[in-house]
Amino acid sequence: MTQAARAGEDRTAEQPLQPVILGADIGVYALARSFHEQYGVTSIVVAGAALGPVQHSRIVEHEIVADGHDPRQLVDRLLEVARRLPDRRLLLMANSDWLVRVVVEHRDELEASYVVPFLSAELLARISDKATFAQICADLDISVPRTIVQSFGADEPDVAVDLEYPLIAKAASSADYQDVEFEGKKKVFEIASPDELAALWASLRAAGYAGRFVVQELVPGDDTQMRSVTAYVDQRGEMTLACCAHVLLEEHTPSGLGNPAAMITYRDDAMLEQARRFLVSTGYVGFANFDVKVDPRTGAFRFFEVNPRIGRNNYYVSAAGANPTRFVVEDRVEGRAVPPVVVDREVLYSILPHRLLLRYVRDPQLAARVRGLIATRATAHPLRYRRDLSPRRRFYVLAAAVNQIRKFRRWYPEPTDTGF
């Protein structure tokens, strides 16, 4: 932390907390809800539009910029907000990879006014790249799918791929992939043959993509083999929050593939220990969210990636009884050490109608757990906040549920053994 940032914290020690969040998706609303539940504050949301999840909400104030994809406009608006609110303790949050990068790259400008609870630019570059992430994990004896890297610079040849098909292909850095457009673009590709892989490479080159893609072995098993880990590491380097969830179903639209849509929180110390090892060994600070899959052939955890943020589905942590905003506020705003918490309460987190979810949970024991949690009302939906359910909000939540049914009918009409 810079000297100016420390002076700013001292100066605002007794001032009211004001969260400021970049973005406008369901994860941003979930963060705003958690801040409201914990501290009774409204959050300022800075984005290019007031999208459905945050629209007509009583717990957010909107700051709309002309181009929500222009880093300079976002940073300038953040600085303008800070000038208007000199009497507030401003805590800056972001919940997508490219927005985290914007914040980190402009840290020197922002830290004079904001608490910026993110990792360094150097570490962000290392861990946000799936290829580098895989190498770090290998060095720490954390299992990952076998990974081959394809670069797309000038005159880069196609690398030899000696993996068994079908295989998985995805951008090494989602931030680099953010603004690339081409027909058939997806977040994650299942590749059935060498010809399909060659066609993908050709599309990426034609679109002017200059980053890297990773090609990985396909770990078998459907969505229910996936796990999510959310953690917070404080300024002392201690993991003070750890929560994991058993994924039941992921989204299956091309742009949302791999985002969990329903999960059950639980405790798995072995998985959390591997996440802790990664975070502590790399010198990580702030929130982190890991995507993990249990390999049904061996029962081993296969770590896929770490997101340098709290994650889109962060409300599962609050729902399980550990409001994550408390950990960052007490650590970075109030400068207090928080005793470590490992969440062990079981809750069903879902953005789906329960009947739709149960169509896709094929394991009888897992389905029985889901029904039991529904029966005891141990459930949570991030948008169903009783203190923020105006008629327009109620209509949006209902419409979103209907839209989920339509999306699954189109993109994933029946469960498969691989989740593709």
TrEMBL record:
- One protein family per Pfam: CPSase_L_D2
Q: Does the keyword ATP-binding apply?
A: yes
Any stretches that span the bilayer, and where are they?
A: none
| Any one GO MF annotation of this record | ATP binding
The question of whether Acetylation is a record keyword is answered with no
Keywords of the record, alphabetical order, are: ATP-binding, Nucleotide-binding
Signal peptide range in chain numbering: none
Domain (ATP-grasp) spans: 134-333
Q: Which InterPro entries match?
A: ATP-grasp, CPAse_ATP-bd
- State the protein's name: ATP-grasp domain-containing protein
Q: Name its species.
A: Cellulomonas gilvus (strain ATCC 13127 / NRRL B-14078)
